Structures are given as C-alpha cells and as structure tokens.
C-alpha cells in the first residue's frame, strides 16, 4: 500500500469556466482512521455538474469548498481498514469522500454497495444505481408525475440523469423527447435508449424541431440545463405542466446575471396563466425513497428496460480536465474516473 | 322596468395603464331570455385585477374581450324573468355577466346565492364569500399549506384576496405578515384583521422592515402582485417555501419586458437551491372545493375570525374610473360597484 494520499484541491475560484489553474494535485500523508471510522481507497470517483457550484464562494444548498480544500465528490471506495462494526476490509461503499485516492470517513456517512455484479458493474453505484439515477427517479416521479400519453422533455438526454428520466417516462407510458448536443448523442438517445425523438440543441431550428416532436405540447419538463434550451421549452408547456428543477448547468459558469430584458416577470406570468408547477429539489430531499428506487431501477435494468452508458476516464490526475469537459457537454454518458482497481 | 341595457364596452386596448378612452358607455336594447335562460338585473358588479388581462389582445388563460365587446366581470344579479327550472323571479345569482345593467345567461352558468343575511350582505357573494375569498382559501390551503408557526407573507394585504389569505393563515396557526400601500391600510391590516405585522411597500426600507418582521424567514409567499415586492420577498424565502402564484398586478400594464439584467436565471437558481415550489392557479382549478370553502369561511365570519371590508362605488358609469384606481391600489377593501338596488 502506498503511504501517500493523492488529492485534488481547489487552488482558486473560477471566474466563468473552470481552468486547469483552479485545481492542484497534491500529495499528503495517508489519513488515519479513528474509532468508528473507516480508511478507504477510492475506486470510482463520480464527476457531476453540481460540483461547479461548490467551487464558487456563494452559498448554495451546501457550503462551498474552501480554497486549498479537497474537491467534493461522491465515490465508490473499498475498505482498507475498518474501525466500525458495519464494515470490514474489502467491502465496497459509497460516500461523499472527495477527489482523492484515499479517505477516512465515519461509518454512518457511508452506504454499503449491494449491487449484484450480474446486474450491473460497481461503477453504477455512483451512476444509474446511485445519485444520478436516484435524482432522475425521484424528481420525475414525485414532481413530474408523468401520466400515460403525456409528453416528457429532458435535456442532456444522453447524460447520467437525462437518460434515466426519459427511460422511466417511457416505462410510465409517457412520450419521451430528448435534447442533446450533436447527432451522435441524439442517435444514441433514440436508437439505444428508446426515446421517441431527440433534438440537437445546437440546431438553429431547435424551437421548430421541438414543436414538431411535441405536437400535443409538453406536460413535464425535467429541467437540468437552463439557458437557451429552457427559453425554447417554456413557451411550449401545457396548462398544468410540471417542471422538476434539478440543475441549471448552462448558467453555472455565469458570474453575473445575463443582459436584459428582464424575463423574470414573463416567467412568472407563464407560471400563472398556464398554472405551471415549478419545484426545485436535490436528491437527498427524497432520501427515504432509496429502497424503492434501488428495487425498481435494478429490476428495470435486469429486464432490459433501462440502459446506461458510462464515460470512464482513468487516473485521478485526469479528473480536472474531464470535469471541464463535462461542463462543456463533451462527455458521452455518465462520467466517472477510475482511480484504482479493486483488490 | 327600463327598456334599455346600459353597458360598458372595450373601446380600445390600453397601452400601459388603462384610461377613460379605453371604455365606452353605450345603451342597447334589453336582451331577451330564450329557453333555459334567465334575464338578470345586475345588483353588484365585482371589479378585480384579472380584468386588465382581458383588455389585452394576448391570450391568457381566457380569451381577450373583443373591441366593442362588453367588459367581462362577475356580478350578483337578481332574476327578472326565468325560463329555467332552477331559478324564479327575485332570486339572487352570481355569474360572469359583465359590466352592464342587464344580462341574459344560461341557467347552468349561474350559481344561486345562498348567503344568510344574518352572516353577511349580498355583495359578499362577489367578495369574501365569492371568487376573491375562494381564491385566497384554495390557493393558500392547497398550494401554500401553511403549518403552525410558519411565516406567511401576502401583498395587497388589505385587498379582497390578501386580507383573507392572512386571516386564514392565522386561523391555521401561522404568522401572517402583510404588505400594503400606505399607513392607513397597514394599520387596518394589523389592528382590524389581526396580522402580526404589515409593511408599507412604498417605504424605501421595505427589505429591512420585512426582514425584521420575518426573523425566521418566509415559508409561504402568496404571490398576487409581482414587481418590486416580489424582488424583495424572494431572497427571504426559506428552503422548501411554497409560492401560490395568484396574480401579478404590478406587471399587468407592462407592454414589454422590463429592462435588464435578465433575472430569470437567478429566479430559477433560487427555485433550485432553496427547493421552492411555485405553482400558478386560478380559482376555477379548485371548483370542486366550493362547498368546503363556503362552509369554512361562513363559519369563520360568524365566529368573528374573518373580517372583511368593501369599497363600494355607486353607479355603473363609475366602474371604469374605479377600475383604473384599483390597478393603482387606490381602493381600500374589496372593490364593488353598486349597479342597482334589489327589489
């Protein structure tokens, strides 16, 4: 076992898009697990858009990462040494253990990975069977509430959350329309994931193409991007449409409000006249539904009703570049970093 | 009985604030009630902010009033002649019969007024026991869902809807904070209606005063005004706050989006990070709750738990001026026009 811990820390706060300079790879002493704690070796680190928020000084629903602090992130890890009764050496766990090769965590902050290897690989514990999958499941079913025959629209449709949103919409009998960046992603969303259509958000005819794909309007818009996609979708929402507000990646790099006119009053007016429901959520708000989620989605995977794609980058040192690409939509599928091989 | 019908029609569409020129008083022949219809004499015409929307060409949740068409509005009327089994001469009814002294309506489009004169006067059928009261009741209880000890904020707090929102919030054990225009209205809201505090929206220290009145933040914001009041309230919303979106009177006269910056992305970000629920509604969305509403609110009035104030203007010809004043907040209490005396 190496006696150093490699960590990626926040070197400075980004203005606009993060750059290499905002991250720094350092080496530190291996942490020591105290009573009730567990020493972990990171296997798969998850990279997700929300991490951009933690890099800014502004408080969101969570505190920002301090300058010099280890970048936050969920990971699948393997237990090296356990001082907690629930875990033993060799166990696989998930937890918010950060961008580093090793970590120490309290046992209570960890979940045991109980994925049947015949159903899905270990990495899915931070993917379709982890936070992103549960985000899709809980947001769509609790807030979106798609009914048979309704139309569900989701952007970043080949991504970790969007792909699952559309497939669950189909399982519930709704039409699923994706929006994604580029022909390759769109083809995958329709041909492999079974969405009814997928539109390239870079197409200048986005509004026209989306309207054609949604002849009966839009009943559920799973909001995970914001920006110009939102502006195109909102006018097509039907009366009583539901909008789970899950993420706004298009604006995460903005350091100031965009120029006018001010469209906030028009948004409020649309909420009023169409009687829309907009509701923000984060996955932990529905933590009590974890059991149902795992049961349902595991079953759907085993039945071939839910497919997933992972974009695996190897080596912790490549996490900053991969993360920058994620914010530009360069990943294809759920982005994970293979930090080490399990033993 | 006079043989003419006096009507106020839409002469032209307003740009910005409506003016006298947008309305025209005309006389026409008394309408004739056909089979299944009822001839009515208007007693109390209700004036409400939503009517501004009907004056514009843009489709809202309802079609605009055509140029030359009778202005839309709810009223309490008395039956002059009935060709419908459910109604007889002398009955009092409510319906959307417009700004006119007489009307003909299908029996199915009318509701019989069944207000106990010992509890409240006839005019309340378009006030606290009518559309505005039911708007407050259904929006607050279905969407706002105030819990004991929570803080509910409502603007136009001395108005037809706001006054009832705050009093029901108190009945449900929540704190009620009003916002209103001027000291006289604010004093009334606190001293007569029993709100915990009321802030003058014209006070340059609005934000500071509101923050002081809401030391634990805001859990429910009943949105019936929009504009600068909204901008002050939204940053004070707590995690998981609920916002019934009922009206946006501050923007009804706007003919174009206000200048930038564009605050729509910031609004979406607040919805996400605070996990807010915004939901638009109109009272008819909760039509099935009419029975409960009438029972509860009548009981609360009889018990002295709900008070109401009416601002009564006499004469149909004064409706346009009174309506213009309503949009400027000049009324004090629910604005109604006494069109004729009952016989």
CATH topology of the largest domain in chain A, which one?
Answer: Rossmann fold
Into how many domains do the coordinates of chain A divide?
Answer: 2
The helicity of chain A comes to 10-25%
The interface involving the most residues is between: A-B, 40 and 40 residues
List the helices and strands and how they pair.
The structure is a homodimer of 343-residue chains.
Chain A: E1 4-10, E2 23-29, E3 37-46, H1 51-54, E4 75-82, E5 92-95, E6 102-106, E7 111-112, H2 131-144, E8 151-155, H3 162-171, E9 175-180, H4 183-191, E10 197-200, H5 206-213, E11 218-222, H6 227-233, E12 237-245, H7 264-273, E13 277-280, H8 290-302, E14 310-314, H9 319-327, E15 334-338
Parallel strand pairs in A: 8-9, 8-11, 9-10, 11-12, 12-13, 14-15
Antiparallel strand pairs in A: 1-2, 3-4, 3-6, 3-15, 4-5, 5-7
Helix pairs in contact in A: 2-3, 2-8
Descriptive key words:
homodimer, 343 residues, alpha/beta, Quinone Oxidoreductase, Chain A, domain 1, Rossmann fold, 2 domains, six-stranded parallel sheet, globular
Describe this structure in words.
Two copies of one chain form a homodimer. In chain A, helix 2 packs across helix 3 and helix 2 crosses helix 8. Chain A is built from nine helices and 15 strands. The first copy, chain A, starts with a strand and ends in a 5-residue tail after the last strand. In chain A, strands 3, 4, 5, 6, 7, 14 and 15 form a seven-stranded mixed sheet that branches. Chain A has two domains: 154 residues, Quinone Oxidoreductase, Chain A, domain 1 (Alpha-Beta Complex); 156 residues, 3-Layer(aba) Sandwich (Rossmann fold), CATH 3.40.50.720. The relative contact order of chain A is 0.16. The first copy, chain A, is α/β, with parallel strands linked by helices. In chain A, 24% of the residues lie in helices and 25% in strands. Chain A is globular, with a radius of gyration of 20 Å. The model of chain A has no long low-confidence stretch (mean pLDDT 95). In chain A, strand 12, helix 7 and strand 13 form a beta-alpha-beta unit. At the A-B interface, helix 7 and strand 13 of A face helix 7 and strand 13 of B. Strand 13 of chain A pairs antiparallel with strand 13 of chain B, so a sheet runs across the interface.
């Amino acid at each position: 076992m190496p006696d150093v811990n490699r960590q990626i820390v926040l070197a400075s706060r980004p203005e606009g898009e993060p750059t290499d300079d905002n991250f720094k790879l350092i080496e530190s002493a291996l942490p020591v697990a105290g009573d009730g704690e567990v020493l972990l070796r990171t296997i798969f680190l998850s990279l997700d858009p929300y991490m951009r928020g933690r890099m800014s000084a502004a408080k969101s629903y969570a505190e920002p990462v301090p300058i010099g602090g280890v970048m936050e992130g969920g990971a699948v890890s393997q237990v090296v040494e356990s001082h907690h009764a629930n875990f033993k050496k060799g166990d696989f766990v998930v937890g918010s253990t950060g961008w580093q090769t090793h970590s120490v965590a309290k046992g209570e902050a960890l979940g045991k990975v109980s994925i049947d290897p015949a159903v899905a690989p270990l990495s899915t514990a931070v993917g379709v069977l982890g936070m992103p999958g549960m985000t899709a499941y809980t947001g769509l079913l609790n807030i979106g509430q798609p009914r048979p025959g309704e139309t569900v629209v989701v952007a970043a449709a080949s991504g970790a959350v969007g792909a699952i949103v559309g497939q669950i919409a189909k399982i519930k009998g709704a039409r699923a329309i994706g929006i994604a960046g580029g022909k390759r992603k769109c083809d995958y969303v329709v041909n492999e994931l079974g969405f009814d259509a997928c539109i390239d958000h870079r197409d200048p005819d986005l509004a026209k193409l989306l309207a054609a794909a949604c002849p009966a309007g839009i009943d559920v818009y799973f909001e995970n991007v914001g920006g110009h996609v939102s502006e195109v979708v909102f006018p097509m929402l039907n009366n009583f449409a539901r909008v789970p507000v899950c993420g706004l990646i298009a604006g995460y790099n903005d350091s100031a409000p965009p120029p006018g006119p001010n469209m906030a009053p028009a948004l409020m007016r649309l909420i009023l006249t169409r009687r829309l429901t907009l509701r923000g959520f984060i996955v932990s708000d529905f933590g009590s539904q974890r059991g149902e989620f795992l049961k349902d989605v595991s079953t759907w995977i085993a039945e071939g009703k839910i497919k997933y794609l992972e974009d695996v980058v190897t080596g912790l040192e490549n996490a900053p570049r991969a993360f920058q690409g994620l914010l530009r939509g360069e990943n294809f599928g759920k982005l994970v970093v293979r930090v080490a091989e399990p033993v």
